[in-house]
Structures are given as C-alpha cells and as structure tokens.
Amino acid sequence: MITAIHTAVKGRVRYKVTELYGSVPLKRLLEVRLAEHAEIQEVSASTLTGNILVRFRPDLSPAAVASLLADIMTDYEDTVRRPPRKTRSWSIALPSMHSGGAAASTTPSCQRRNPRRS
Length: 118
Description:
Layout: E1 2-6, E2 12-17, H1 24-35, E3 40-45, E4 51-56, H2 62-81
Helix pairs in contact: 1-2
C-alpha cells in the first residue's frame, strides 16, 4: 500500500510504502526506476521506516509521482507473485556393475573409506 505522508513542500513528497519495510531489493528497484525519469531529481528509500522521499521538478505533481511509484510497485508485485520457473531435473549416474569379474563400487568416492586411515 502507498500512502502520502507529506506533500506540502512543492517539488518534494514522502510516501509510506508498506512493502518497502525490510526489503532491500524493493528499495533498490524504486530508487533506480524513479531516478530514470528526467523529472525526478533525487530518490531516497528506507527499508527501516518503509518511507520513500522523492524530490522532483516543481512542474510535476505529487499525484504524477504517486502514479510512477504505483506502476513500479505493480511491476514488482507481478515479478514476486510469478510462479518460479521449473528447474532442470538433474540425475547422477553411479558406476554400474561391469563384467570384468570384480564389481564396481556404487559408493561415491568421497564416501569410500581410506584404507590408510584405519
């Protein structure tokens, strides 16, 4: 949820973003994505308070900044809620019995006992 905390100073706005609390990845995303806009002069997000301070050109409205912030949050939530990609199923081939008379060990070499350490 995004809540305007302070909008009285022209060109400066502070929002409470509940999802920001404790989230370093979201902090970085918000700061980078907002800073990409020419109208935005400075962005400072805090994972301790869940607040984000944005300084912007005075001809931009706090509502326009809120709209940018909401778009970024939507993208973030879509990424977070996306189901994880299927991971490749890996198989481990163990040595098999060979016909040379002696059976090959199926115990991985890291688990074989070292005869010198008896």
